[in-house]
Amino acid sequence: MKNIFVGNLSFGATEDLLRSVFEPYGAVERVSIITDRTTGQSRGFAFVEMTSSEEADRAIASLDGRELNGRMMKVNEARPRAGRELAGSGGRGSHGGGKRRFNRW
User: Fold this and answer.
1) Residue 83 DSSP label
2) Helices 53-63 and 15-22 sit at what angle, rounded to 10 degrees?
């Protein structure tokens, strides 16, 4: 199984549309369009899982840069998700690292 990143999608793209674009290259296991949590609107990218790595590679080579709904798709192998840091910490502990500064009254 290979996971494919599909970027620069029009906000009107649907899972059925993406499935129909990728199926000529092989079996599509799942299509997931990423949406904004608060609005539910598409964020303009998706992930497509294909059952065969060879078929996925063929789809990537054929579809990268292809126009879909007036936009040039960016299609490549999805990279593993990097670990996320706690929001606001900047990755340096709870105080943002560096010298502590105190307000002088």
Assistant:
1) P
2) 100
Domains of the chain, CATH where assigned:
2-77 (3.30.70.330)
Contacts 24+ apart (CB under 8 A), 62-67: 62/25, 63/6, 63/21, 63/22, 63/25
Look-up of token digits 């078929």: 55
Q: What is the pLDDT of residues 36-69, one digit of tens each?
A: 999 999 999 999 999 999 999 999 999 999 999 9
Question: What confidence tens digit (pLDDT) does each residue in 10-32 have?
Answer: 999 999 999 999 999 999 999 99
Task: Enumerate the β-bridge partners of residue 3.
Answer: 49
Cα–Cα distance measured from residue 50 to residue 23, given in angstroms and rounded to the nearest whole number: 9
First-last CA distance in the chain: 62
Helices (H) and strands (E) in the chain, counts: 2, 6
